[in-house]
Design a protein that fits this description.
This protein is of the alpha/beta class. It has one domain: Glutaredoxin (3-Layer(aba) Sandwich), CATH 3.40.30.10. Helix content is 35%, strand content 20%. It contains four helices and seven strands, in the order αβββαβαβββα. It has a five-stranded mixed sheet, covered by helices on one side. It has a two-stranded antiparallel ribbon with strand order 1-2. β6 and β7 form a beta hairpin. The longest helix is centred in the first third of the chain and has 23 residues. The radius of gyration is 19 Å and the shape is globular.
């Protein structure tokens, strides 16, 4: 009897908590505090959003088979090199299960921003499209969630004002 009552109470609590759990695991939303994330880069660096406060953070989701991803990588590489000292952090993230380092050797030049081969549950390709880019301001607010490749001009117009904001 007691066992049945405890099971019913547990079921009610689980049903009551389900909407909260689903809301907490939904996608990142523009204008709200960016959901936390944690991953390890290919060079074994542990990255957590909470450690990046005061910086502008760019998360670029890409794939090895994606032409637009490959096309925007050199631009992002150059932008990162130029603006990293101003508080820009950029991460290229793919969820492909292949050895990404061997693929990167095919690119002309070396990417200077860190790469990761992981899934970030709250940062998924928008509409299933790659590249998808998420940009978080210095206060930790998600300012941009965009599917598709950036042109250099559009990227500058998007990120330059965020870098100009006081930390």
């Amino acid at each position: 009897m007691l066992n049945r009552t405890l099971r019913r109470i547990a079921a009610v609590l689980i049903l009551a908590a389900a909407p909260l759990l689903l809301a907490a695991s939904g996608p990142a939303k523009i204008g709200e505090l960016a959901p936390g994330f944690s991953f390890t880069t290919l060079d074994k660096r542990k990255v957590r959003l909470e450690d990046l406060k005061g910086k502008v953070v760019v998360i670029n989701l890409w794939a090895t088979w994606c032409g637009p991803c490959k096309a925007e990588m050199p631009m992002m590489h150059a932008y990162y090199q130029k603006h990293h000292a101003q508080g820009l952090e950029m991460f290229g993230v793919t969820s492909e299960g292949i050895e990404v380092r061997s693929w990167l050797k095919k690119l002309s030049g070396v990417l200077s921003y860190p790469l990761a081969n992981q899934v970030l549950p709250r940062y998924r390709p928008i509409g299933g499209a790659v590249p998808s880019t998420f940009i978080i301001d210095r206060k930790g607010v998600l300012r941009v969630a965009r599917a598709g490749a950036f042109s250099e001009t559009a990227f500058r117009k998007t990120v330059d004002p965020l870098l100009a904001e006081a930390p």
